[in-house]
Amino acid sequence: MALGLRSVAALVFCTCLALTSQDVSAAEQPHEPWSVVCLETRGFHDGDTMTCVSGPEAKGTFVVRFAGIDAPETGQANWRVARDKLREIAVPGTLAECYKQDQYGRQVCRMKSANGNDLADAMLADGLVWHAVRFADEQTSEERERYAELEQRARAAKTGLWAQPEPMPPGECRQVRKKHQKCR
User: Fold this and answer.
1) 105 in the Ramachandran plot: left (φ > 0), alpha (ψ -120 to 50) or beta?
2) Cα separation, 110 vs 129, whole angstroms
3) Is pLDDT above 90 for 30?
4) Residues ≥6 apart with Cβ < 8 Å to 69
5) Phi, psi (5° rounding) for residue 11?
6) H helix or E strand, kind and range, residue 98
7) What sign has the CA pseudo-torsion 63, 78, 110, 102?
8) Which helix (H) or strand (E) holds 131?
9) Cβ distance 149 to 141 under 8 Å?
10) Listed residue (109, 133, 13, 103) closest to 54, CA to CA
């Protein structure tokens, strides 16, 4: 049975609509958790993304997206401060505890210093990132409480990005940029 031009157009439209309306998180790939020490840290894109070099016998070189936090997007207020702080604290010897791959192919990891301190704690305490509550179900209850408390303390003290009257959350910035508008 032959389809008319309108039927084909409607079918193409519906297929395109279905493909573009899928949740991006559907592309995320949870995997068995693994840990590796970063022998080298580089490629600091912003305050929550970097590259870890672990050596070919381990996991090799991979891009890390920090679990539980969201840093200002490039060009937003304080993004360079957040990136520079991350560069300062994510040094060789940092432990990456990874549990999934995000839609951009980055490994989502908890990052810990050589002495076991969570690097996200430092970023939150300095008021340089938001607690990414949209991923709170991936955190332990202790992490959720600690991250929320650290962010609240930084807000109350007007530390870092909280010194601004109304800092724009990175998720809101990403939506604004999709409309070809500028973030603040």
Assistant:
1) left
2) 15
3) no
4) 47, 48, 120, 123, 124, 129, 130, 131, 132, 147
5) -65, -45
6) strand 95-101
7) negative
8) strand 130-131
9) no
10) 109
Q: What is the pLDDT of residues 46-79, one digit of tens each?
A: 999 999 999 888 899 999 999 999 999 998 989 9
Residues 111 and 118: beta-carbon distance below 8 Å = yes
Residue 147 has pLDDT above 90, yes or no: yes
Strand pairing category for 29-37 and 95-101: antiparallel
Cβ neighbours of 110 (radius 10 Å): 22
Q: Are strands 95-101 and 69-70 parallel, antiparallel or unpaired?
A: unpaired
Tokens 């200002």 -> residue: 72
CA 64/CA 159 separation, integer angstroms? 26
Q: Map residue 34 onto helix, strand or coil.
A: strand
* Residues 88 and 50 sit within 8 Å (Cβ to Cβ): no
Q: What is the pTM of this model?
A: 0.82
Helix (H) / strand (E) containing 11: helix 5-20
User: What residues contact 146, with CB distance under 8 A and at least 6 apart?
Assistant: 118, 121
Name residue 100's beta-bridge partners.
30, 108
Instruction: Tell how far CA 181 is from the center of its chain.
Output: 22
